[in-house]
Design brief:
single chain; about 280 residues; mainly beta; Thrombin, subunit H; 6-stranded antiparallel beta barrel
Amino acid sequence: MIDRKRQPRIENDCQRGNMPVTFTWQQAMSARASVLLASVLALVGAGCVTARPPSREEVLQKILPSTVQIVVEQREGRRITSGSGVAIASRRTGVGASCFVLTSGHTFSGLAGKMEIYAVFGRHRGPGQKARALLVASRNDSIDLALLRAESDQCDTVSLASAPVLGEPIWVIGFPLGRHIMLSSGIVSQVGLESASDPATSARLIVDAPVSYGVSGGGVFDARTGRLIGLVEGFSTARLTAQGPTPAWYIDVPVPGQTLVTPLADIRRFLDESEQADLLPP
């Protein structure tokens, strides 16, 4: 005979005869839950659970703030030319924060001493913040890069990607013709190898994202992670010549699918030769 005084009271249990079964079922479920929880914790601890890859919107939210528009004006304020760039580092100063921006060197070719340089931050949100910039270093030979420094509290810097691979999806962000921000997509279409006889010869990196005038110096990003793989150096062009009355005239138009990119290896070499290597993480 079952001593009912010694049985725990269980609300709404399922019984057959006088045998309470809910108590036994709860014990079994509790044991299974404990085993399942222990298994999940073991998998997480072993690194077997992978994180969800970022969405396209999350990637763009990461890279758009690092994009900078470059404006070159005459001293009286008339615009001479424009370009694109990316913020790579921020350093605190006694009066605020200095933002270091990489762009193309040919933007400033032949303009020394007769120009004012401005970096415009936050252009993805509207007009942005225009700040006067100092040309720290510039080259326009085997490496086409320039480093600017501007005082700004809107310095959202890039993260660096690993070496790109053929077919990798990319984003290119810049300001064609000095106007609104433009986003174009594509893939890495060529990854050249360094010359074994001349290690100083950089690898040729090409993407097929279409660009136009004014995008030189713009960032080229891994579309999956939002990390920087290089800067737009330029693009191949085709010359269209008008036929008919003299004087003859022509126009050079970009060739789709042949956007040249300055890789991170060249960027590091440029910063090292400019004694600014500490601006990028090792």
